[in-house]
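Posting this for the archive.
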Amino acid sequence: MTFFIRFLLVFALGFLIYNLVIIDYSSPLTGRSFDSVIAAFIALAAIILLIILRLSQNLKKKYEEDSN
């Protein structure tokens, strides 16, 4: 599971970077740039959720070790 989460984090980071490169910063809310802005926010949300999942797994593991 840890490998899969790391893979998804790397994939989401690559997706974020790709979309940040595509954005036309002179008019970011028109045409294809708008799609890239939305996709960049989606990738950022995915990264945040995956980090939260990873932290919760670490806390669960520590809690189980402390209870034994």
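The mean pLDDT is 94. Residues 2-67 form one domain.
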